[in-house]
Amino acid sequence: MNKYFPHLGSSLKVGGVLLKNRIVNAPMAPPEMGPDCGLTRENAGFYGLRAKGGAAVVTVSEGIVDMQTGRSHTKQMALDNPMILPSLTECAREIHYHNALASIELSHGGKYAGARAQDMDVNTITRYGPINEVMADGSVVHEMPEELILHIADCFGRAAALCKQAGFDMVLVHAAHGWLLSQFMSPGTNKRTDKWGGESRENRMRFPLLVIQKIRETVGPNFPIEYRLSGAEYVDGGYDIDECIEICKMLDGKVDMLYISAGVHENHDAFVITHPSMFLPHGSNVHLAASVKKHMKHTPVGCVGGINDPNMAEEIIASGKADVVCMARELFADPFFPKKALTGHADDITKCCRCFTCFSGFLTNRIASCALNPVIGRELDHRFAFCETTPKRVVIVGGGPGGIQAALTSRERGHHVTLIEKKDRLGGQLLCEEFVPFKADLFHYATLQAKRVKDAGVEIMLNTEATPELIETLAPDVLILAVGAKQIIPPIPGIDGPNVKTLDALHRKEPDLGSSVVIIGGGLVGSETAVYLDGLGKKVTVVEMKDDYAPDANEMHRIGLEHEFAKNNVKFCLNTSAKAVTEEGLVCTDKNGEEFIIKADSILIAAGMRADWDTVEALKYSAPWCVTVGDCIKAGKVSDATQQGYYAALDI
């Protein structure tokens, strides 16, 4: 029995394999694959890191069983191509090297084939779904004929056989999130009139059950078949948890594990339920798995839903809500979550802050990345990064995310490190998140990094202004400047008045603001601050010069913001310029040049940040070599600062 988390650390028999603990790495898209849609060594390293971190099962995502009809985006393996067998084998071996079981996801996009096309030639894809329909983008979906249904079922079987041959220990059938099998399962999308659909649940399940049958025929007994489905679709016409329970009763005993997720991936509103945003509570979808588990006689049940705390995971297993806890984004932020939790180092776990940096990378330039973990997407680089080096004296100015990461990595490589911070604690701009409920994980990261840097033996100088004289006294071989950025203060009359506040007003449990607030600036910071202040019961108006709010938010986080603004009372004045501050409030002009005033107790400035180049210029020649990282190069995001700090230290 594990003495720290006895339930989370307990083993579980699934089919013919034994899970060493109850933590499963849920399917995650890897760094971009090879041109043959096979896995690369970088992909193997990506999954291998999660195995090294202690997860019982690492699930490779996402294998398409028939590329001609089923590929929906670029990060999908061609499981209908036997030539990718060597790459699959390399990946399975990499996972096994680190004492984890290897699973792989089998999928088909159905009517969403080509939906996330990016550089794919969608003209080569004919879309098939349960029925004939025209999608919102005008693309045509054809009703899948019976001979193609039978062919796709065979494809699932052959794909599973290939994966078993490669050394995978199990396969996961992807029947969740609106892809092909869930399209057939759902009464909202399957309006067929033949034996493959319609009102009859038996008909709608005929195809999924045939897929399971074909897989079992090819892999034989004792090879686990996992099945992933949405506990509720959360779309008009989609099925709810009661229908899911009836579906799962039909699957009970026919599969070896059920993973209960939620939502439909390509539905704008359901997406942030499938992948919970920071505005939702952790474990938000666990209740769906708990409802299903009550009705299962033979099949264990796994849950998902933004779980990032081992105490929550332990409670889920101990209370019987689920048999297994699945994590994806959390194992980006900290692949070693399982090992840390089960060896008594839970307080050293980096918790995913659900900022969607990972999704943003996938959907824009197709890279894998994490705002809090600079290793993600560069796992092989990291493996060989800590080569022998001559210890040097490193001085770092600035105790924000970039400076701290540079200090940690420099110290890990054997250098003597001094970190100078002008404030009384480390954390930089992240300290303003301390009292924002939906930013609790990001603040946790800041405090955890501060603890790590102290424990690593870094010499820390707080309440200290860096000067050329001080730095020269410390005699560094390398100087790393991570001095951050300064708030932009709009040059308008009255901006220095007593009713005007900077973001420092948020650095306290009760913000130093009145009951009505005008925020100057509707970027990501201003928009998130509006959500926070509205939650405190304040009357909030956001003034933004552009025609939209939060243009600097990534696509997925933007969806979460839209959900929040749809249900709160924040007012936006877009295409509006701030002209002056008075005792009454903020004088503005709209896009037509009409002047008006927004009455408010407080004016909060969130007009952006400007790199602190003055400090850089003043300090950069105080050492033989100087490197800048983070916001003092260009005001950016936590991910930029963290990665730049990491690589600056590797270059020493």
Textual characterization of the structure:
This protein is α/β, with parallel strands linked by helices. Helix content is 32%, strand content 19%. The protein has 22 helices and 29 strands. The strands form seven sheets. The chain has an eight-stranded parallel β-barrel, surrounded by seven helices. Strands 17-16-15-18-29 form a five-stranded parallel β-sheet, covered by helices on one side. The protein has a five-stranded parallel β-sheet with strand order 20-27-21-22-23, with helices on one face. The model has no long low-confidence stretch (mean pLDDT 93).
Please give a quick description of this structure.
The chain has 652 residues and is of the alpha/beta class.
Keywords:
652 residues; alpha/beta
SSE layout and pairings?
Layout lengths: L11 E3 L2 E3 L3 E6 L12 H12 L4 E8 L2 H4 L6 E2 L6 H13 L3 E7 L19 E3 L3 E2 L5 E4 L2 H20 L4 E6 L4 H6 L15 H4 L1 H14 L5 E6 L10 H11 L5 E5 L6 H7 L11 H8 L7 E3 L6 H9 L5 E4 L2 H4 L3 H6 L14 H8 L14 H5 L9 E5 L3 H12 L3 E5 L19 H16 L3 E3 L6 H7 L3 E4 L3 E3 L12 E2 L14 E5 L3 H12 L3 E5 L11 H13 L3 E3 L3 E5 L3 E5 L5 E5 L2 E4 L3 E3 L1 H7 L6 E3 L9 H13 L2
Parallel strand pairs: 3-4, 3-14, 4-5, 4-6, 6-10, 7-9, 10-11, 11-12, 12-13, 13-14, 15-16, 15-18, 16-17, 18-29, 20-27, 21-22, 21-27, 22-23
Antiparallel strand pairs: 1-2, 8-9, 19-28, 24-25, 25-26
Helix pairs in contact: 1-3, 4-7, 9-20, 16-17, 16-22
